[in-house]
């Protein structure tokens, strides 16, 4: 499929947090931005009158948009930073250097200092971050300084100068915040042990530190120093919140490729997330058109090789949703829990959103392709000989046998064709006999179509179980249409699909598009029939004691009488039977009315 127009890309953006990227006609990245709501933020570029000339120039140059969906706004902030650092887009100025967010530095020196900075110097020092909150940084530094005695001076503590007695301990030593390495009161080995522990904290290993903080809080509380205890409690809460850190920056997941796949009848969508030093640096989704009924496993293996070659990835470890074979050089992991599972879930979400975007674009640009896909899916799911381009669904409506009517709704290419809907007044049946009514309307419908030479449907759906289906089949036999038109019945409670001469019902996946279209047909037939019935009956037709029950209206009464056929049966019904028809709240009112004692 050719690249969709900018207008279509805008229409199909999700209302989710994420990062968007603008590209020009040559595929050069122009701008990276973050958004709490991608659709609203990106659309604003094209709907607002921009006063700033540079923004107007940017908007004119935009030829295509890509986006990455993430879990939270914080994730979007961090991912935006990573992508700007990597790609250096022309129209991104504020975040091109490393001054955007604070880092924690462990200086490359004897007796290393630990401090926050917005500037990274490549001198061998260790940097941890970036952090999205200065409060988190200060809390971490407070925690570190509370647990370990660190120097704050910037002296050159070489062994020669210490031995020469060049420095004297400062106030920090006398306050108990430093052990005085400047005068040789602390060994380098002892100091470095603390630095190793600090690095573990900064990598996310908070278990020991939190334990010590909780002990400290308990000691303050026992000493009735409640203000100090409260301060420690706040720090614990902030650290625990930080511990539930973003999966976008996670030191435990380094130099890994993540792949996931989402597929339908004709296409598969493979998302690729590339992680470097714990951060996402790339997201790309590949659309694959199926030639045969290839399995997801085959397609994913093919896509992984293609994407790794295209982006020159040399990662030795990959995360995937199921086991695949990529040879002995790559470690394949199927995450089940924790941060690894979260990052895989994020990849799956991006694949799903990409597929949704493509389907929305197809509906707009190529509606025939969308209809063809749905029809092919229905033909397979329902085991039909032909694609059900023309479907008709029947439903009966009567209340205690009064004004019995039926409805026939028509769908063509998966969409309602309202001009073809038909109402039927039952003429030959006395009383509430759904089976005989169904037999009558099916006969009348197709007798007329045969007489007029109209094109017959490929599929008939009967709202009801085996009984209604058998009644409809009698009419098809009389008209000699048996086996010329596919016919199925749908039972309401479990959404069972019944076929002629097959005692075992078919159950479709609750999320399948085929079942959704069948449910839409059934619901539309029910609505259309009730509407006609309501128009026919007089106002006194519902003058029953049901109307005297507080909170029970006309629509509820119609539903009850349609199901139970009489007021007496409603009065004797069990609570769970009523709940199946009208829900818990209204069922309780009706049940209480008839069981006051």
From TrEMBL:
Name this polypeptide is given: UvrABC system protein C
Domain of life: Bacteria
Function (record text): The UvrABC repair system catalyzes the recognition and processing of DNA lesions. UvrC both incises the 5' and 3' sides of the lesion. The N-terminal half is responsible for the 3' incision and the C-terminal half is responsible for the 5' incision.
Keywords linked to the UniProt accession: Cytoplasm, DNA damage, DNA excision, DNA repair, Excision nuclease, SOS response
Chief location of this protein within or outside the cell: cytoplasm
One family name in Pfam for this protein: HHH_5
Quaternary structure note: Interacts with UvrB in an incision complex.
Domain GIY-YIG: residue ranges: 15-93
CDD domains: GIY-YIG_UvrC_Cho, H3TH_FEN1-XPG-like
Subcellular localization(s) per the UniProt record: Cytoplasm
UniProt similarity note: Belongs to the UvrC family.
Cellular component GO terms, alphabetical: cytoplasm; excinuclease repair complex
GO BP annotation list: nucleotide-excision repair; SOS response
């Amino acid at each position: 499929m050719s690249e969709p127009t900018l207008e279509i890309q805008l229409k199909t953006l999700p209302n989710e947090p994420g990062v968007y990227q603008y590209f020009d006609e040559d595929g050069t990245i122009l701008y990276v931005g973050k958004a709490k709501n991608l659709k609203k933020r990106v659309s604003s570029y094209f709907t607002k009158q921009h006063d700033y000339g540079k923004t107007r120039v940017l908007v004119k140059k935009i030829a295509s948009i890509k986006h990455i969906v993430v879990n939270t706004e914080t994730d979007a902030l961090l991912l935006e930073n990573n992508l700007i650092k990597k790609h250096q887009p022309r129209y991104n100025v504020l975040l091109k250097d490393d001054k955007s967010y604070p880092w924690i530095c462990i200086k490359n020196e004897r007796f290393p200092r630990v401090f926050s900075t917005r500037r990274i110097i490549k001198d061998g020092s260790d940097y941890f971050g970036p952090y999205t909150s200065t409060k988190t940084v200060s809390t971490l530094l407070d925690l570190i300084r509370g647990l370990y005695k660190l120097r704050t001076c910037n002296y050159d503590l070489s062994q020669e100068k210490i031995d020469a007695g060049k420095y004297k301990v400062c106030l920090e030593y006398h306050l108990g915040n430093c052990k005085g390495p400047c005068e040789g009161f602390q060994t380098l080995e002892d100091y470095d042990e603390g630095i190793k522990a600090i690095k573990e904290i900064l990598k996310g290993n908070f278990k020991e530190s939190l334990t010590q903080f909780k002990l400290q809080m308990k000691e303050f509380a026992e000493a009735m120093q409640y203000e100090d205890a409260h301060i420690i409690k706040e720090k614990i809460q902030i650290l625990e919140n930080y511990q539930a850190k973003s999966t976008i920056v996670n030191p435990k997941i380094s130099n890994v490729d993540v792949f996931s796949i989402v597929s339908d009848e004709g296409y598969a969508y493979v998302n690729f997330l590339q992680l470097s030093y714990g951060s996402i640096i790339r997201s790309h989704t590949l659309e694959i058109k199926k030639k045969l009924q290839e399995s997801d496993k085959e397609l994913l293996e093919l896509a992984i090789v293609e994407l790794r070659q295209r982006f020159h990835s040399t990662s030795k470890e990959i995360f995937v949703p199921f086991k695949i074979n990529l040879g002995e050089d790559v470690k394949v992991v199927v995450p089940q829990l924790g941060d690894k599972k979260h990052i895989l879930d994020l990849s799956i979400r991006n694949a799903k959103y990409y597929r949704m975007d493509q389907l929305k674009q197809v509906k707009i640009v190529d509606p025939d392709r969308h209809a063809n896909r749905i029809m092919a899916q229905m033909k397979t799911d329902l085991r039909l000989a032909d694609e059900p381009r023309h479907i008709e669904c029947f439903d009966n409506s009567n209340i205690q046998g009064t004004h019995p009517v039926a409805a026939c709704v028509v769908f063509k290419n998966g969409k309602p064709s309202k001009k073809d809907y038909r109402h039927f007044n039952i003429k030959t049946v006395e009383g509430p006999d759904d089976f005989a009514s169904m037999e009558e309307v099916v006969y009348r419908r197709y007798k007329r179509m045969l007489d007029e030479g109209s094109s017959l449907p490929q599929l008939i759906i009967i709202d009801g179980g085996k009984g209604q289906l058998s009644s409809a089949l009698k009419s098809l036999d009389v008209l000699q249409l048996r086996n010329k038109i596919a016919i199925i019945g749908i039972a309401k409670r479990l959404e069972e699909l019944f076929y002629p001469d097959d005692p075992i019902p078919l159950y479709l996946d609750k999320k399948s598009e085929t079942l959704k279209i069948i449910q839409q047909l059934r619901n539309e037939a029910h609505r259309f029939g009730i509407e006609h019935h309501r128009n026919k009956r007089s106002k006194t037709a519902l003058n029953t004691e049901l109307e005297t029950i507080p909170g029970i209206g006309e629509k509820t009464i119609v539903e009850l009488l349609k199901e139970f056929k009489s007021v007496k049966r409603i009065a004797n019904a069990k609570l769970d039977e009523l709940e199946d028809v009208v829900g818990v709240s209204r069922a309780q009112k009706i049940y209480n009315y008839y069981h006051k004692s």
